[in-house]
Amino acid sequence: MKLERTELSLIGVAIAIAILAQFSPNWLVFTLTLAISTALVVMGVVMLMRAGLVSFGQGLFYCLGGYAVGLGGRFLGITDALVLVGLGVVVTTVVAMILGLLMTRYREIFFAMLSLAFSMILYGILVKSHGLGSTDGFGVVDWTLLGFTPGDGQATTTALMLALVLALAIALFLNRYFKSSIGLACEAIRENEVRVEYMGISHRKVLYINYVLAAAVGSVGGSMTALAAGHVDPTMAYWTISGEFVFIAILGGTGHVAAPFIAALIFTLVRTYAVELAPNAWQMILGIVLLLIILFLPKGIWSLFTRKKGAAS
Amino acid sequence: MTEILRTEGLSRYFGAVTAAEDINVTISEGEIVGVIGANGAGKTTFINMVTGYLPPSQGTIAFDGSPIKGMGPRKLMRKGLARSFQIPQLFLELPVIDNLAIALSAAEHRQFQMIRPVRTPERIKAADEILEQMNINHYRDEMVTAMPQGARKLLDIAIAMLGNPRMLLLDEPTSGVSMEEKYTLMDTVMEAVRQRGLTVLFVEHDMEIVQRYVSRILAFASGEVIKDGPVDEVLADAKVQELVTGKHHRTPEKEGDA
């Protein structure tokens, strides 16, 4: 299979980050890991947005991925990070396959509110579960990676490497997916469901597959956050977290597979520095940033690159 | 000629309103049939029922000998029944070539492919061919929003034809198109239809267009077919003149006579 320019660029950037991480301070490596993990969940939001659906409940799958890692280590004795991430994907996929049967019947505000409701149900269950630490959550077991046990100070870099590999694999897949028959069918559904049906395409099936895939991708983000932070708690399913994912998706735009990664990194850095500079007004700073993006770049930060390309051609 | 479409007692009610009543029609393979009638006469309701957009309240529909009542658009498309719309149903924010590539992937039953790009060399070739045939190849890489109404109509019909249908139902193919463009548009469509040997049923308000391109007319009024027959016979009918065409309708030259 011949690699496209985008794919070569993604591989190049991933290698560059992996090399730079060896010389970067721990806080930056950790921030990068969180940004990549967040970007994976945002990627799920973007997949839904491309099909015309806005989810205010992607935190559900983020949380399921995180808790699968926590519970898999705690109750099943699994320590391998890849197996834990895989467990998260399996659990999330099963849940999404059940919820998807209902969710794909709804559009617009109804889809948004229903997705929010399901994530808040999980939040409510976790808050009431004292065995799982209630609102405090619980710690994730020390993990290994394919038999390698990260020593002191190595866990953060190892988590970044794992996040990079998984994110790269997912980004490469989604780059192809967005241009494939089903990827374009999602955009077609957003544009005109009637015509899609008259072409002989089941819009429900397309949306269902897209919904389940978006959930699975989101769960990887949740699992990686849990592995990097070493802790899970119910706020992962709280609606404000899902709102952040939508925020980042709008910030980046839906035009390219790299957009969520750039947006997640900007968001994480803006938030980090906004909290540092204005501890009582950081949400306002984020709000102003979003307003400016909507006003001047309605198709997200990625439109800066496409505009440039358009101007050059 | 082989019968391809038959409706018996086809009716549609919206509460107390009768949109279509006891429509009995038989269409043979290869026929080009015009559907005429004033606004609200039941023409689009008839097309919508036949193409699965609207379930009939009563009656039966058979396509190619098998019953199709209750089937949705997807199944009907697979059976060989396609349609275009009065307002073209297109993917406005996608390039023209992608509109066609999606239709082609669906026609090949490959709409769920996840890795292979939708724009395969074979699909691009097929899309280019139909764009050229419809004389809209210069819009190939444009967004649909950049196309004028006439070109959109042609793209809508091209998409319908990509599913390899046996019968095509066109809902007002020339509405919203300028007088100068109407004949060019219809010539293009009819040429494509002839090449594929399709059966066509098309709704049209412009009697000159109807006379030029069809061999048979179904005249609708108040949800019923008031006259079904050859063009001259239907247009000369007093009831049709009173309810559909107007009494002073003149008879222009037929296609080929010009």
TrEMBL record, chain A:
The chain crosses the membrane at residues 7-23, 29-48, 60-76, 82-102, 109-126, 155-174, 208-230, 245-270, 282-305. The keyword Cell membrane applies. It is found in: Cell inner membrane. This is Branched-chain amino acid ABC transporter permease. It comes from the Bacteria. Its main location: membrane. It is a multi-pass membrane protein. Keywords: Cell membrane, Membrane, Transmembrane, Transmembrane helix. The lineage of its organism: Bacteria, Pseudomonadati, Pseudomonadota, Gammaproteobacteria, Pseudomonadales. The keyword Flavoprotein does not apply. Pfam families: BPD_transp_2.
From TrEMBL, chain B:
The keyword Nucleotide-binding applies. Coiled coil: none annotated. CDD domains: ABC_Mj1267_LivG_branched. InterPro entries: AAA+_ATPase, ABC_AA/LPS_Transport, ABC_transporter-like_ATP-bd, P-loop_NTPase. Keywords: ATP-binding, Nucleotide-binding, Transport. Residues 5-247 form the ABC transporter domain. Signal peptide: none annotated. It holds the Pfam family ABC_tran. One of its GO terms (molecular function) is ATP binding. It comes from the Bacteria. This is ABC transporter ATP-binding protein. It comes from Marinobacter zhanjiangensis.
